[in-house]
Amino acid sequence: MNQNESIQDMQKRFTHIINHLASLGKMFPKKDLINKVLRCLSREWQLKVTIIAESKDLTIMSHASLFGKLQEHEMELMRLSQNEDRNKKKKSIALKASSSSYEENGKDDNIEEDDDDDE
């Protein structure tokens, strides 16, 4: 599997290669084809590969079934990635505050009142 390649693109490429090999007379057992697909997946897919290999009889699994399971897992990975991105965007930021002092020249803040007594 190429980097940043979707399962659907990989399926198209794999099917194209297998069809060309079949036209040249080279046939593979279904189990071998399934194993080749599972082996070419990257490390992030390893858990799913192990689950498929242990839970299903690979001799009766179809290509459509395998690629369907892989596409389902790919969509789940994308959904989780989008949720993580949204959570990262929601993080609040802390701003550093600084204080400064200033002087007022020639002004007095006290208000003087005139005491004019009208008698």
| Overall radius of gyration | 35 Å
The amount of beta strand, in percent, is under 5%
Largest sheet: none
Instruction: Tell me the span between the first and last alpha carbons.
Output: 103 Å
Low-confidence stretches: none
The quaternary structure here is: single chain
Number of strands: 0
Query: Which sequence of SSEs, written as H and E, runs from N to C?
Result: HHHH
Estimate the mean pLDDT confidence.
81
Task: Give a verbal description of the structure.
This protein has 119 residues and is mainly alpha-helical. It has a domain at 7-88. The protein is 54% helix and 0% strand. The chain has four helices and no strands. 5% of the residues are buried. This is UBN2 domain-containing protein. Residues 110-119 have a biased composition (Acidic residues). Residues 94-103 have a biased composition (Low complexity).
Write the layout of secondary structure elements.
Layout: H1 7-23, H2 30-39, H3 46-55, H4 63-89
